[in-house]
UniProtKB/TrEMBL annotation:
The chain crosses the membrane at residues 6-23, 44-66, 72-95, 116-145, 151-173, 180-200, 220-242, 254-276, 309-334, 346-365, 371-393, 400-421, 427-445. PANTHER family: SODIUM-SOLUTE SYMPORTER-RELATED (PTHR48086:SF7), SODIUM/PROLINE SYMPORTER-RELATED (PTHR48086). It comes from Lentzea atacamensis. This is SSS family solute:Na+ symporter. Keywords: Membrane, Transmembrane, Transmembrane helix, Transport.
Length: 473
């Protein structure tokens, strides 16, 4: 294991070193929160892929493949579809807004101040997203060192908090590019072919399992597939962690085509994870917890050195999403909830405090897919209608948007309590309640003032003057 330890140690030290380098570059609020809005195609595409494919997509995606076969790809596949739709339909407008948070976009569109409601929902989502990837660290450190979950979470979480606090979005962007390369090599070019070879290829897997359902794309269940599509496709359209990456693009063209490239990569990653999990079921049929399939396969199949690289790939997946969600959580807290003028130092303090909170919550939770589902249920149920409605329907009003956010979020929480976190009902009922509330209240209240809509139109067309852009900066 000495070589594995060396590979992991080199990776971790590299992440911290990039955090230190990023600290020297992140001297302004814009540099710290959105990398100065200067990322080109390559860096943008890589960092977008890294942030959306985290611990739940890697550990959880392989686990779903272990349990449901190729149908386990649907969760990550939905994530890829969400990035494709966001990039093709809305990325250009999002870049032109020149804001820092989704809530600031809502204030521009509807006028007034709705950020306390939307900010609270977005804060809860980004915090839970940070937690899901932080939970997953424990599986890697357990394989490497036999450490209990709590210790693994604290070690992994502390590394992410350190480099995120130091350099903000510049550090996260640099580490994400490395993480993107590492997990592409580790997952797609090493673990996937090695696991398929060990199981005897597709024919060998079919012979070992003797279960045709494992190669049925609908095996996971139509209702679950629909729920994944609703939660993750829509969630990727409106998440602060995703929009904040869009804000880093240096042009609308980069945001569009870099995002489309990232979405296609996610689709490939989805199929790879499901195939790895299916091969794992054929090789190790008695794993009690599906989320342990990834670590079990790495430990049992890979030679030393290679094993370290693949475990580093898993850490890369977790850390990229965790750091992106953490900086998003801190940005929302500072700009939408705290609502006072902030500088680089105060943004670092927000990142540090929320990072410590996320580590504490991660210690208390276990199921990464369940935690991610909670986050997306609240996000989609609470904010989707108000955000998409604001982008496509001029008659939507501020009161209608605020009412739909409150009703949708509360409905999602209520049905998660009544029917369970993994039930389909929370997303269906919350979206329905939010949509009906938005339309009814908007039609019952005065239209958005013409001057507000005129200012909004100038922003989305990229024609706002410098003074207008600074209003929400």
């Amino acid at each position: 294991m000495a070589l594995d330890y060396a590979v992991i140690a080199a990776y971790v030290l590299g992440m911290i070193g990039m955090g230190w380098w990023g600290m020297r570059r992140a001297t302004t609020k814009s540099e710290y929160l959105v990398a100065g809005r200067r990322l080109g195609f390559g860096m943008y595409s890589g960092t977008m892929s890294a942030v959306v494919l985290g611990g739940a997509s890697t550990i959880g995606g392989v686990g779903l493949g272990y349990k449901f076969g190729i149908s386990g790809a649907w969760m990550v596949f939905a994530i890829g579809l969400g990035i494709l739709l966001l990039s093709a339909l809305f990325a250009r407008r999002i870049v032109r807004l020149k804001v820092y948070t989704v809530s600031q976009m809502l204030d521009l569109r509807y006028g007034g101040n709705s950020s306390m409601v939307s900010g609270a929902v977005m804060w809860a989502y980004t915090l839970m997203l940070t937690v899901t990837s932080t939970i997953a660290y424990s599986t890697i450190f357990n394989v490497l060192f036999g450490l209990p979950k709590t210790v693994g979470v604290i070690i992994g979480g502390s590394i992410v908090v350190l480099y995120s606090v130091l350099g903000g979005m510049w550090s996260i962007t640099l580490t994400d590019i490395v993480q993107f390369i590492v997990k592409t090599i580790g997952i797609l070019f090493l673990l996937l072919p090695i696991s398929l070879f060990a199981a005897g290829g597709i024919d060998g897997i079919q012979a070992r399992l003797d279960d045709p359902a494992m190669f049925d794309v609908g095996n996971i269940g139509i209702s679950t597939i629909v729920t994944f599509l609703l939660i993750y496709v829509f969630g990727l359209l409106i998440g602060q962690d995703i929009w904040q990456r869009v804000f880093t693009a240096k042009s609308p063209k980069v945001a569009t085509w870099g995002g489309i490239t990232s979405g296609l990569y996610c689709l490939v990653y989805a199929v790879a994870g499901a195939l790895i999990g299916t091969a794992g079921k054929a090789l190790y049929p008695d794993i009690a917890n599906k989320d342990e399939a990834f670590a079990t396969m790495v430990e049992g199949l890979l030679p030393t050195g290679v094993r370290g690289l693949v475990l580093a790939a898993a850490l890369a997946a977790m850390m990229s999403t965790s750091s992106g969600a953490l900086i998003a959580c801190a940005t929302v807290a500072a700009n939408d909830i705290w609502k006072r003028k902030t500088d680089v130092h105060s943004n670092r303090m927000f990142t540090l405090v929320l990072g410590v909170i996320a580590i504490g919550v991660a210690v208390a939770l276990n199921d990464v897919v369940a935690a991610l589902t909670v986050a997306y249920n609240i996000l989609v149920g609470g904010l989707l209608v108000a955000i998409i409605g604001g982008l496509v329907w001029k008659r939507g009003t501020r009161i209608g948007a605020m009412a739909s956010m409150a009703v949708g979020a509360l409905t999602a929480i209520a049905f998660m309590v009544i029917d369970g976190v993994l039930a389909d009902s929370p997303i269906y009922y919350s979206l329905g309640a939010s949509f009906v509330t938005y339309v009814a209240v908007s039609l019952a209240t005065p239209p958005t003032p013409a001057e507000v809509l005129a200012a909004w139109d100038r922003r989305v067309a990229g024609k706002a003057d410098e003074e207008e852009e600074l209003v929400n900066a």
